[in-house]
Known about the structure:
Shape: globular
Helix content: 25-40%
Largest sheet: 5 strands, mixed
Strand content: 25-35%
Radius of gyration: 13 Å
Number of helices: 4
CATH architecture: 2-Layer Sandwich
Structural class: alpha/beta
Strand order of the largest sheet: 4-3-1-5-6
Number of strands: 7
CATH class: Alpha Beta
Amino acid sequence: MNIQTSVLTNSIMVAFATNxxxxxxxxxxxxxxxxxxxxxxxxxxxxxxxPITTKDTDRTIDLLNGTDIVYFVNIGPAAAAKIINSGIFPxxxxxxxxxxxxxxxxxxxxxxxxPPFIKKICERRAS
Length: 127
């Protein structure tokens, strides 16, 4: 999958590491797949699935190129540094979280007063 830069303003592309398709429940390095969504302040839409067939951090990061944020339950320090250096913002949860709940939270953040890292992502996408 080639993630294209969105033409929508004030939208973000988000990847969720998942093994069960409904929850952020996977370690970055052992996720079976990443579900990609485009989120605006008014809606979110499913963009696609990136299946992970090999345990290769660099390859996985290449596949995530075009996303702004990636969510997971754990990650190694070397992989975290590589994600940050590629321009993707990593978010780690300590336990499994519903993808739908996180989508709603992100949509609400975009519609109100987003945190600085979200504002920075939107500004980068708009330029």
